[in-house]
Amino acid sequence: MLVPLIISLSALLSPANTATWYFLRYNLPSSQAFLSFSGTMVIPKLPKAGTYYLWPGLQPTDNSGVYQNVLDGRSGTWWIGSGWCCSNPSLPWGSGFNVNQGDTVAFSNTRGSSAWTSTLTKGSSGQTVTDTFALNSKTFNQVLFAIELTGVSWDFGALVFNNVVVTSSGTDTKWCTNAPENYNSATNYAISGVSASVSNSVVTCKINSVTLQSPK
Questions:
Q1: Which residue ranges form the domains of the chain, and what is each CATH number?
Q2: Which UniProt keywords apply (predicted)?
């Protein structure tokens, strides 16, 4: 299914299912493009098996899909993996692993010369998975911190991201230092420790923490 300006894993569900969305979004000026996106996600509790998708992600200018690191609760145990959803191009989903409440997962998504590379590292064990995705034809201009729920409610507590670092081409830093878009004003959130710098026409945006606290 489609939500305005965002496509996600819910596209794989039947049309009868409708996702409820909570997300923060950073939007770039049209002259700039994201080059990397990394940070650490703190794993919340999982109350039950259900269609909980919690993720950081990148979306391109053509809104054709989303490149995301998805924490998935459908099995009743959290699983996290990286991928592109869902077509244009059609790419296989990446590898992943199970995680539990209180663990952390470091995520890193980086544009290379021929593809984007995603690496996930489990804090409790050091387990790491790395996958590449042929997405260099896409210009990513949106960074998202998202909660996507189908048939379940926001009953898992806060979703916390720490040590976030995002880089983009260009010199405009306002996309980093201004408040993000809060979709439908639906989310109570807190952001701390924001700073931006420019070197060799690359913007580096650092955020100590991004917390999606609760629905409004």
A1: 2-157 (2.60.120)
A2: Signal
